Amino acid sequence: GENVEQHPSTLSVQEGDSAVIKCTYSDSASNYFPWYKQELGKRPQLIIDIRSNVGEKKDQRIAVTLNKTAKHFSLHITETQPEDSAVYFCAATTGFGNEKLTFGTGTRLTIIP
Amino acid sequence: NAGVMQNPRHLVRRRGQEARLRCSPMKGHSHVYWYRQLPEEGLKFMVYLQKENIIDESGMPKERFSAEFPKEGPSILRIQQVVRGDSAAYFCASSPGTGPVPLHFGNGTRLTVT
Predict the structure, then answer these.
(1) Which of B42, B99, B101 is closest, CB to CB, to A105?
(2) Distance in angstroms (rounded) separating the CA atoms of residues A66 and A77
(3) Rounded to a whole number, what is the distance in Å from the CA of A42 to chain B's nearest CA?
């Protein structure tokens, strides 16, 4: 089955700086890669996703890049703000007939004011 | 358009009791996924159901856990004879089955076993 590894497990950055979280996946058939943000005690919320036919996607301060050859994808947050502090999860799925997501272990991002 | 609805939000059970968690998918969605999140950990896939069918239960413990998604009504995750290690947040997500599409999660049920 699919295996998703995520690094780092914790990340602290100064407010205004950029944050980068990296994930690798094992199943070359995976074709959809969402990122979720989870605040304490709340549900995971989708913040951005990318499909395997695209190399990069951007939404305001958030961007995701995908390298299918190397089987890794990354989340980039620019101009970080205190409200970006949360746990971030990457995930992957092959999506054919079964959209179950395999999640990474999460990155606890802390923005230092 | 209501999102995925889960209830109860919090559930406290004593060891040995049964826990029933409910998930109503988004309108028009016929596929449901259950995930478990242990404290300070990531989300682990448990089971994938379509109406009246279990499609993938590869993440479900073999004993004490069962899930159903009847033709009418919500999907139910049932845990029999709960133990302290079952304490976790259980999240449900739904999709229309035309995937891959973004999965949106419900607010979860936080199960505490005392």
Answers:
(1) B42
(2) 15
(3) 7
